[in-house]
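ok new one. same drill as before - structure tokens go in, u give me an amino acid for every spot. 268 of them this time. try not to just spam alanines like last time pls lmao
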């Protein structure tokens, strides 16, 4: 079986840290699981569909819509204070640090980047944030839509490089960038943040053996108390992993439907 932390491997340093952590989890669980590199632009949908998937981050929106649904294992609890010790995250709407934009409204009429249309943080969360503005102001809200750029890092690079004026960053990925890529992160400034929602969980294939899933979940929950993982937790801004239910992600689909009902089916 295979594991991957592609979603939150924002650079080589975080990829290496996640690899070591997931290898520890698999060893503690006693589950034969190879941690693989799965670099962009390879589609995450193909990774999530693998029948040998043992443990990988999966965006909550496609997880909630998947049939059959992957086996949910646990979800990360980021350590920064804005998460309140809960397995949640948001979307930071960022602009260039040296731009004149002071608030979200200033980005309207400019170029907006995105990751992919099946992404909660890179599409659906900002879509719901923008929907009331589009209803009030009329749309399109933006002069151009830039993407799909696939990863939060590529959104950050597009804005820093002047190819887009604003865009969404998964807040946990953004925090990891701030820690590990300050030269890039300091070129960006947050003008809005969406409400917090359940963070992408770690999942296995729908057909994953229940005994393997239980052992992997137990090992993930043990990460918080393992003294030998202290440096890794610090490097990954990880407080713990938490037990979560599949039903807790159903609200993401409801939020997407809310944006539809407001007459804003696409970011435009």
């Amino acid at each position: 079986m295979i594991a991957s932390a592609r979603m939150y491997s924002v650079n080589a340093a975080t990829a290496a840290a996640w690899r070591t952590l997931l290898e520890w989890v698999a060893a503690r669980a006693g589950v034969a699981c190879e941690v693989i590199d799965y670099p962009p632009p390879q589609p995450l949908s193909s990774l999530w569909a693998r029948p040998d998937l043992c443990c990988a981050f999966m965006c909550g929106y496609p997880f909630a819509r998947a049939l059959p649904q992957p086996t949910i294992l646990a979800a990360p609890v980021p350590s920064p204070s804005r998460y309140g010790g809960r397995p949640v995250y948001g979307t930071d709407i960022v602009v260039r640090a040296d731009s004149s934009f002071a608030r979200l409204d200033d980005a309207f009429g400019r170029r907006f980047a995105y990751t992919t249309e099946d992404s909660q943080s890179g599409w659906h969360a900002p879509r719901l944030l923008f929907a009331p503005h589009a209803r009030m102001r009329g749309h399109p809200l933006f002069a151009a839509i830039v993407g799909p750029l696939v990863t939060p890092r590529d959104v950050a690079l597009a804005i820093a490089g002047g190819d887009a004026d604003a865009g969404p960053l998964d807040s946990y990925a953004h925090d990891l960038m701030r820690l590990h890529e300050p030269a890039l992160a300091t070129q960006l400034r947050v003008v809005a943040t969406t409400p917090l929602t359940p963070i992408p969980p770690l999942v296995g294939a729908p057909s994953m053996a229940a005994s393997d899933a239980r052992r992997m979940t137990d090992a993930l929950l043990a990460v918080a108390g393992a003294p030998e993982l202290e440096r890794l937790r610090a490097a990954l801004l990880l407080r713990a992993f938490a037990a979560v239910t599949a039903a807790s992600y159903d609200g993401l689909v409801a939020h997407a439907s809310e944006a539809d009902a407001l007459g804003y089916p696409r970011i435009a």
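The chain has two domains: 2-79+200-250, 91-195. and btw The chain has a mean pLDDT of 97.
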